[in-house]
Write a structure and sequence with these properties.
29% helix; five-stranded mixed beta sheet; 24 strands; five-stranded parallel beta sheet; alpha/beta
Length: 470
Amino acid sequence: MGKVYLVGAGCGSLDMYTLKALRCIQNADCLIYDHIIDEQILNQIKRNCELIYVGKQASHHTLKQDEINKLLVEKAQVYSQVVRLKGGDVYVFGRGGEEGQYLYENHIDYEVVPGVTSITGGLAYAGIPITHRGLSSGFQVYTVSLKKNVRRDLPFSFMLDNQCTYVFLMAISHLEYIVNGLIDAGKDLKTPISIVSHASMPSQKVLIGTLDNIIQQFKETPVSTPGIIVVGEVVKMREYLNFYENKSLFSKKILVTTVDKNQYLSDRLRDLGADVTQVMTGRIEYLDTPIPNIEGYLIFASKHGTIGFMKAFLKQYKDIRKLSGVKIICIGNKTNQILNQYGLNADYIPSNANSESLKQEFEKLVEGKKVYLVQGSLISNIDIHNEIINVYNNKETKINREEKHYDYAFFTCASSVERFYQNNQSTIDTFVSIGKQTSKAIRRCYGDVKILETSPSSKEEMIKLLLKEC
């Protein structure tokens, strides 16, 4: 019998997941998830994890709640670890209590992992503090969700305290009911009110008004669910606290391709406010390659080559000192940093992390000497070597044939360009390339397009180049 984790996904953004939530998802044998989540979290699952979508949207439920409860028990009888991933917090209008109760009654071990609720986290991303000294000393939270087509009657007469913040969840479609109810109860027409749509996401939209004009604003500029309505003096603080929408890349749609699950570029771009989609074009599989007795020069062209070589070398020779007489060339400081983890340091690093700099700066140095190139299974454009040592496979992964539009696309190798082009129909305004070889692949596949090419070649330089462009 397995265990079920009822996990809160937070109020939208991938950044809102707690460390424990992330660990549960990464270890899950089965993931049962809702509609209101950042789908990039699905990149974190194990390869053989079963995915089951049970999303609930307004007037459309993939599964009824009773069926979800039964599904949790059924999967717990099959798998060791089941994760029920729910938008927001498990117990804030999320029926997590019903699911926990059902698991208890069926003798299934379970645990709750709280999430960052939109009541606080979502409003914070909109620049609205739920309390603020001198403006609000407390708050009340309500839902206006429908049950059996009956709208819940709200106690508007208890919402007249100007020192209190009033928050309404799942309520955008009931805006007129809320506004008219507050006005009829005697709330001042000039009371600040805000509608926050897709809180903490790059698609976030915020309307600001007062009770007497917000309905007209919404008609002129409608926003979509999920959303929050907040009423109170704290809404005025958005003028000072709107940090999120002021980020450099806010709402820019950016594609990031990788040949592993490395999140560095995606995390950095999300920190800058971008709407990031990460697509894994390849998976690294290290090989148990026989390593010859190395004499002369050894070239490491990538971090994966370095890791793969050291795994195979240490398995075969046991002692790193077998490389003591070898001269090592690393293409790029990042590759050398991986080498440092094994107690070694490059003797030479080209001024730029690309094959052109390697050839220009070291061709004469290695002339007439034995040179080994460590690489993966894909054909390399590095030609100053006598022998190639293949230590990993860059195995192609499935890419969804979607038709999306991206403002920018980040490519860090030629193989990712070619694989994405062959398997995806998306349109891209501007390409960000890590170097000349990658740029050549972009032109070969996409033709005469706009390319931002880094020099020197590094992921951080790619981000700096984009920020200059924006």
